[in-house]
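During the reporting period the student researcher (J.K.) took over the structure-prediction task from the postdoctoral fellow and processed the backlog of single-chain submissions. One of the processed entries is reproduced below for the supervisory committee.
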Amino acid sequence: MTCSVRRVDYFSTTVKDQPGEAYQLLTTLADLGINLLAFTAVPIGPLHTQLTIFPEDTGKLASEAQKDHLVLDGPHPALLVQGDDELGALAGFTGDFPMPG
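J.K. obtained the following C-alpha cells:
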C-alpha cells in the first residue's frame, strides 16, 4: 500500500443544519480561490453541523476569511494520511514517525 503522511492545518466552523449551508461556505471558499485538501461535515445535535476545512494554503485561508468576515476557529495542527482506497487500508498503517516530546 502506498501511503503518505504530512502535517496540515485545519479550521472549523459551525452552521445551522439546513440544506445549502455547507454548499454556501464551499462556494465562498472556491470564489476566494481557496483549494481544499479535505473537508468534513458532522452533525452536532439536531440544529447544527460542524464543518472542518483542511486548506492547501493555511495563510491564504486565514487572510481571505478575515477579509470576507468568515468566522473560523483555527488553525489547528493535524496529520493528513493519504493512501490507496481499499478495504482495511488504515489497519495496516503503523505510523512509524517520531512522537512529539
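The committee noted the following: The chain has one domain: 3-83.
J.K. will present the remaining backlog at the next meeting.
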